[in-house]
C-alpha cells in the first residue's frame, strides 16, 4: 500500500497517533547503521506535538519528526514466505535529492548540539562518525572531557581504522544521535560490549559489513525507486495509515 499525497501535517498526525501507542517502535538509519526508539507503556514519556514538529522523550531516548513538504508515506508488510514472520511497517520517505545529508567520510567535530531534543543535552559536544552515508548523519554526543579530547585528536581519521577509539567510545557510552532530513533519534543507554546484547528500549546498531553494501534500506522492502527512507514506524499490530 502506498500513500503519497498526504499533506505534511497529516503525516505528522499519522505519526502522532503511532507515538501515543507504546507498542510502536521507530527506526532511523540505513542498512548497517540504525537507531531504534521504543518505550514501555508505563514509562514516563513526554510527547510534544507542534504545528510542524513531533517529539517524544523518555529517560532512555528521544525522537523528533519534522514536517516536510515532499514527504511520502509508504505503508508495507515485510515480505516473507511465512505469514507469522510478516510485519507491518510505515516508511516516511523523501525523494533522494531532498534526503541528502553531509555524507562526511571521516571523524568530524561539530561543536555543541544546539538541536538536542532535551535542553539539558545541548551542552554536549557532537562528533560525526564519518560513515559517509548519503542520507544519514551518525553522530555521538558527550560531555566526557577525556573522550572529547580523544575524538578531537582523531579528527580526520576513519573510525573503523581506529579500534582503540572504538573501544574508548564504547566504554564511555556517549549518546548516539542519528539524523535524517526528517528528524532524529537519540539513544541515551549504554553501548553493549561486542559480545553483548542490545538493551531493551532505545539502542543503535553499527555493522561495518552491512554498511559496505551501501544500501539505504534492506533490499526486500517495497520502497519505490528514487525514494529514501528517512524514518520508519513499526506498529505491533495492524497498520493504521489514516
Q: Tally the helices.
A: 4
Number of domains: 2
Radius of gyration of CA atoms, rounded to a whole number: 17 Å
Q: What does the largest sheet look like?
A: 8 strands, antiparallel
Intertermini distance: 12 Å
Oligomer: single chain
Protein structure class: alpha+beta
Mean pLDDT: 90
Assess the beta-strand content as a share of residues: 25-35%
Share of residues in helices: 10-25%
**What is the molecular shape?**
globular
Number of strands: 15
The helix-strand sequence is EHEEEEEEEEEEHHEEEHE
Unreliable spans are 1-5, 237-242
Features:
alpha+beta; single chain; disordered C terminus; 242 residues; 15 strands; eight-stranded antiparallel beta sheet; seven-stranded antiparallel beta sheet; disordered N terminus; 2 domains
Question: What can you tell me about this protein's structure?
Answer:
The chain is of the alpha+beta class and 242 residues long. The chain folds into 2 domains: 2-98 and 216-234, no CATH class; 108-211, no CATH class. It has helices spanning 8-19, 145-153, 163-172, 208-211; strands spanning 2-3, 25-30, 33-37, 46-50, 53-57, 61-66, 72-77, 88-95, 108-112, 125-128, 137-142, 175-180, 183-187, 203-206, 227-234. β12 and β13 form a beta hairpin. The chain starts with a strand and ends in an 8-residue tail after the last strand.
SSE blueprint:
Blueprint: E1 2-3, H1 8-19, E2 25-30, E3 33-37, E4 46-50, E5 53-57, E6 61-66, E7 72-77, E8 88-95, E9 108-112, E10 125-128, E11 137-142, H2 145-153, H3 163-172, E12 175-180, E13 183-187, E14 203-206, H4 208-211, E15 227-234
Amino acid at each position: 500500500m502506498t500513500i503519497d499525497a498526504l499533506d505534511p501535517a497529516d503525516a505528522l498526525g499519522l505519526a502522532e497517533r503511532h507515538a501515543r501507542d507504546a507498542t510502536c517502535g521507530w527506526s532511523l538509519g540505513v542498512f548497517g547503521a540504525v537507531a531504534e526508539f521504543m518505550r514501555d507503556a508505563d514509562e514516563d514519556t513526554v510527547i510534544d506535538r507542534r504545528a510542524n514538529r513531533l517529539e517524544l522523550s523518555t529517560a532512555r531516548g528521544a525522537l523528533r519528526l519534522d514536517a516536510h513538504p515532499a514527504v511520502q508515506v509508504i505503508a508495507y508488510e515485510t515480505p516473507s514466505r511465512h505469514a507469522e514472520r510478516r510485519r507491518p511497517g510505515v516508511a516516511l520517505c523523501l525523494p533522494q535529492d531532498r534526503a541528502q545529508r553531509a555524507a562526511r567520510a571521516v571523524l568530524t567535530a561539530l561543536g555543541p548540539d544546539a538541536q538536542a531534543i532535551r535542553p539539558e543535552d545541548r551542552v554536549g559536544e557532537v562528533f560525526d562518525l564519518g560513515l559517509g552515508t548519503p542520507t544519514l548523519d551518525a553522530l555521538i554526543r558527550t560531555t566526557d572531557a577525556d573522550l572529547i579530547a580523544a575524538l578531537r585528536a582523531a579528527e580526520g581519521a576513519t573510525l573503523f581504522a581506529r579500534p582503540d577509539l572504538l573501544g574508548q567510545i564504547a566504554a564511555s557510552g556517549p549518546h548516539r544521535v542519528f539524523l535524517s532530513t526528517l528528524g532524529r533519534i537519540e539513544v541515551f543507554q549504554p553501548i553493549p560490549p561486542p559480545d553483548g546484547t542490545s538493551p531493551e528500549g532505545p539502542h543503535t546498531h553499527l555493522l561495518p559489513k552491512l554498511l559496505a553494501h551501501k544500501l539505504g534500506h534492506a533490499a526486500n522492502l517495497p520502497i519505490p525507486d528514487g525514494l529514501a527512507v528517512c524514518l520508519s514506524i513499526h506498529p505491533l499490530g495492524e497498520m493504521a495509515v489514516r
